[in-house]
Amino acid sequence: LYSGCRKWGEKMVYIIMICMTVPLLLLMTMLDNKSRLLLGFVLCGMVLAVCAYEINSLVCYSLQLSGPELSITAAPVIEEILKALPVLFFAVLVSDERKQILQLAMAVGIGFAILENAFLLLTYVDEVDIGWAIARGISTSLSHGICTLTVGCGIIFVRKQKKLFYTGTFALLALAMTFHATFNLLIQSQYDYVALALPIVIYAVFWIVRLKGRQLSVQTKI
Hints:
There is one protein chain. Helix 2 (33-63) packs across helix 5, helix 4 (74-93) runs antiparallel to helix 5 (98-123) and helix 4 (74-93) packs antiparallel against helix 7. With 222 residues, the chain is an all-alpha fold. The chain has helices at residues 2-28, 33-63, 67-72, 74-93, 98-123, 130-158, 165-187, 192-221. The radius of gyration is 18 Å and the shape is globular. Helices cover 86% and strands 0% of the residues. It has 8 helices and no strands.
């Protein structure tokens, strides 16, 4: 049974990725460099979602974990490391410009969520409804985006502090993993409404702080 489900899941996850990425790759040829880079990181997030599926499946089978057990133990660790890699490489090797890093970090997380949502939709097509789609589309997608955004926000600082780079990067990943595991734990409990609200509140606070920072910057220049 596992082998049959595994083959079906592997087949579907690659079909979904191809159906989504090929049109977006064609679109990239029409975009300018900045837009192409942003869309490229969205596509990178989708590819990483497939990688995470493969690794999670292997870990789940090897350790004989149930779905809920996997989602609060190994999956947050695997997924956050994978999502952070392109952001870390870009910040270290290309540019650590704050605005660009934040955009690319969010793009990776959202790309990851897009493919994950599509796969889960097809897997549980008989059980989902509009409410599920709204929850996945807003809260769960934001959760993935916020985790990667957290790493992006922090890497801008630790990148310039050589003594803190390795320990700081580990701390950022640990924070993202903890938030991810907490979200998955809450969403499977009677407090699922807390899990749904948490990413939205955090993202709203992020924008409030950012907008206030912009206002202070403008006032200082004046």
